[in-house]
Amino acid sequence: MDYNIILYSYCKNIYLVGSGNFWSNENEVGDDNSISYRLYSLSLFSIYIVMTILEIIAVLYGNFPEDESSDALTFAVSHTIVLIKMFSVISNKKLVRSMNESMIKVCKKHEQNELVLEMYRTVKINVIGYFVTVYGASVFYVFEGLRKMYSGSHFVTIVTYYPSFEDNSMVATLFRVFTTAVLFMMMMTMIVSVDSFTMAYLIMLKYKFKTLRHYFERLRLDFDKINKSGDQRLAAEKLTDGLVEGIVMHQKLLKLGKNIDQAFGTVIAMQLILSSGSAVSLLLQIALSDQLTFIASMKIIFFVAALFFLLGLFLCNAGEITYQASLLSEAIFHCGWHACPPLPPPHRNHQHLVRHACAQALQPPIMKAFKMIELTYSTFLTVLRSTYSVFALFYAQKK
Questions:
Q1: Tens of pLDDT along the chain (399 residues)?
Q2: Sequence-distant (≥ 6) Cβ neighbours of residue 79 within 8 angstroms
Q3: Are 243 and 357 in contact (CB under 8 A)?
Q4: Which pTM was predicted?
Q5: Which ranges in the chain belong to alpha helices (H)?
Q6: What range defines the domain where residue 126 resides?
Q7: How many angstroms separate the Cα of 124 from the Cα of each of 202, 203, 375?
């Protein structure tokens, strides 16, 4: 298992869900410029857009009961943001293709199998957890629709302007079933091509910084081994060459971090809005409704869990990138530079290299949403506290 296999698998699945070919070699994944694929992708996203528009119209002009009106508002807002996230990633397809190559190549010679396997397990566990929460919420929406149908109403999951609440015809029922199928497909496209892809990139960059830190730590071990043999000149040369290589890798990782921010920054920013905004209205539904069934409560709980689980993955992994990058300065400083004299020209001065590398590492990358809000652990906790505070305020007023 390596970065190449993981990214290739992602790009293959992204291609299958209609978002295009993000792999550098089109022949390995598929041709997203073919007429058949363009029709497939256009049809899929056109359905997503039309369904979202019908949800928005339902909120503005529809005449539905309170519970369906709340669902219409929730889906109209969330699906609008989902579409924005999808198109933001698709619009950066060329950049992501180059990022795939960079992510695979940087630090490749110095990767440790156990660290790569740990990274893969982390990605896998987080994707499975997010998948379960998203589809758990979707399944409970279906169960609630079935409960309504057996209690004398009609089956409904996605509330759209058509059909109206009073329309129980066969055509209306088929349309409601169709929108449910669209919901499940839209969630798959969202998970594969946007949310988990962004999360995987953040985790991969975090482990690349770990790999670089271990590289500088091994540099010290190699230096001590050669230096103890009595060949100080060779030890100094190896140390100097190693420092140069490490600085180059560090610069590539910093550039990769900026590219990730450019390609996926909108996704993270939109998720910040969605998680904090939608959670308040969903929690109020649970707190203020007197006739909320167990299934209806569970669909809301799973929805809120999915929102904050993904936000936590984004913010905590982005914060972990900053933390891992901040550890580099100490690893560089203890590389062994003080134990040997500088080499004469034309060799580079390893003491100058250490100073330069440490100065660069003392300013670790900090990812930001809207170029203002730092994506860190503390930001995640702040969002949680702020969401609860707003919820408590509205709850107190409505009580």
A1: 789 999 999 999 999 999 999 998 877 898 999 999 999 999 999 999 999 999 999 999 999 998 899 899 999 999 999 999 999 999 999 999 999 999 999 999 999 999 999 999 999 999 999 999 999 999 999 999 999 999 888 899 999 999 999 999 999 999 999 999 999 999 999 999 999 999 999 999 999 999 999 999 998 888 788 878 877 778 778 888 888 899 999 999 999 999 999 999 999 999 999 988 887 777 777 776 767 788 888 998 999 999 999 999 999 999 999 999 999 999 998 887 777 766 666 666 767 888 888 988 999 999 888 778 888 989 898 888 888 887 777 677 666
A2: 48, 51, 52, 55, 186
A3: yes
A4: 0.93
A5: 3-16, 26-29, 35-61, 66-91, 93-105, 113-150, 170-190, 196-228, 232-288, 294-326, 328-333, 350-361, 377-398
A6: 3-398
A7: 13, 11, 22
Q: For residue 41, which of 189, 164, 258, 176 has the smallest C-alpha distance?
A: 189
DSSP H/E element including 237: helix 232-288
Question: What angle do helix axes 113-150 and 3-16 make, rounded to 10 degrees?
Answer: 30
**Which residues on adjacent β-strands are paired with residue 46?**
none
- Taking residue 317's Cβ as centre, other Cβ atoms within 10 Å add up to 22
**Could you give the C-alpha distances from 283 to 62, 231, 277, in angstroms and in order?**
23, 68, 11
Judge contact between 6 and 197, C-beta under 8 A. no
Burial classification of residue 294, based on how many CB atoms lie within 10 Å of its CB (0-12 exposed, 13-18 middle, 19 or more buried): exposed
User: In the chain, how many domains are there?
Assistant: 1
Q: Are 156 and 55 in contact (CB under 8 A)?
A: no
Structure tokens at 290: 């007197």
Q: What is the dihedral of CA 130, 136, 137, 141, to 10 degrees?
A: 160
